[in-house]
Amino acid sequence: MAQIVGIGLDLVEVDRIQKLLKAHPERFLDRIFTPGEQQYCAPRVRAAESYAGRFALKEAVMKVLGTGWGEGIRFRDIEAVKVASGAVEACLHGRAAEIAGELGIGKIHVSITHLAGMAAAVAVGEKE
Hints:
Layout: E1 4-13, H1 14-23, H2 25-32, H3 35-41, H4 47-65, E2 78-82, E3 88-92, H5 94-103, E4 105-115, E5 118-127
Antiparallel strand pairs: 1-5, 2-3, 4-5
């Protein structure tokens, strides 16, 4: 039976992300999103919505890890990757991957949704 290690939930206003994209596009994108995430989101009609969902996913995963922005985790250490089935998976790098290993997390299940100017993500960490 799977053992849940942590649960994270985050809600982001799409307008907030849109303003950051307009005010500091390169700095914001390069600090928060991996090249793969940028490649996926940039050409989308509602790019800010896609970025907001991925931002929420990163925050939700940080909550699963119990760190928030602390303990050396960078936003780019958590990557939202769309897989062949169309689902999104969280791929951990750097310090995020190290902490997940220390906690015994083998899989983080994630889901992103968008509605009425909001993006939300939930993450559940499962022990190996």
